[in-house]
Design goal:
The protein is α/β, with parallel strands linked by helices. The chain contains ten helices and eight strands. It starts with a strand and ends in an 8-residue tail after the last helix.
């Protein structure tokens, strides 16, 4: 069955992963800008990273018949220094007219600090100025609930259209509040954290199949680029219909991502 991988960090993956994803049925990959595993020392480092996301990575994906799209931002983990973050953000508009850029992301919070929240709000303003969708990172573990509430409050204060925002990395205690506020929800399928495959299907069964997607967020850590394909099998084991599975792994991502003028299959 064809599927879309709506959140994967392919700059940290091998060409073998692209090949495996293509064989599994992946038709498109969306790659948000993220933390490289270390803090970059200059805005120029981000400039080169954006070039990699908008130029090189789409060509690498195309070799395996997969379309590649990206989101741009400075991630919350490197946003604590607001002066540095603004230097990086000043570069972003230069890349927004590239044909594979979907919007702003993955922005959000890491430790729920004042500086992170300020830079988050300034990213949101860029998205609003250019009428672009937003992909949001929520904090890990004990910071997730508070961070999700702070993010939702900031979005509501900015009068952002919730239908153009996907709040990612939801878990059992945050999925309901995200969906109830009219935002889209993303589940990240990790072997050791965030959502395991059974937990993700539990969330679907508890909160419904509308306005939700699942992704691998595969990166340089312990993660699985085939997580979405494997979760499709988990849904099948639980007797979900082919139509329901297709809705979650294909129709839902297409519906949200089509709000970007650059998204097409």
């Amino acid at each position: 069955m064809p599927y879309i991988e709506p959140h994967a960090h392919m700059v940290s993956r091998t060409t073998d992963d692209y090949q495996a994803m293509a064989i599994a049925g992946c038709e498109a990959i969306c790659e948000p800008a993220f933390w490289a595993g270390f803090d970059r020392s200059s805005a120029q480092g981000f400039y080169d990273y954006y070039r990699q996301l908008t130029d090189y990575e789409p060509k690498r994906a195309a070799k395996f018949g997969i379309k590649h799209f990206c989101w741009l931002c400075i991630n919350p983990k490197e946003a604590e220094d607001s002066g540095f973050a603004r230097e990086v953000m000043a570069i972003i508009p230069e890349f927004l007219d590239q044909p594979t850029v979907l919007g702003i992301g993955e922005i959000g919070l890491n430790k729920n600090t004042v500086s992170e929240l300020t830079i988050f709000e300034e990213h949101v303003a860029i998205a609003q100025q250019h009428d672009l969708p937003i992909l949001i990172h929520t904090p890990h573990l004990e910071d997730k609930l508070k961070g999700t509430r702070l993010i939702i409050d900031a979005l509501n204060n900015a009068k952002v259209d919730p239908n153009k925002v996907i709040i990612d990395h939801v878990e059992e205690h945050t999925a309901g509040m995200v969906l109830d506020q009219g935002f889209w929800a993303g589940m990240t399928l990790y072997p050791e954290s965030k959502c395991t495959l059974p937990r993700a299907v539990d969330i679907l069964e508890n909160f419904g199949m509308e306005n939700i997607w699942m992704n691998s967020a595969c990166d340089w850590g312990i993660s699985d680029p085939l997580a979405v394909a494997k979760c499709m099998q988990e849904m099948k084991k639980r007797q979900h219909s082919r139509e329901t599975i297709h809705q979650v792994v294909y129709d839902n991502p297409v519906k949200f991502l089509s709000q970007s003028p650059n998204f097409s299959l």
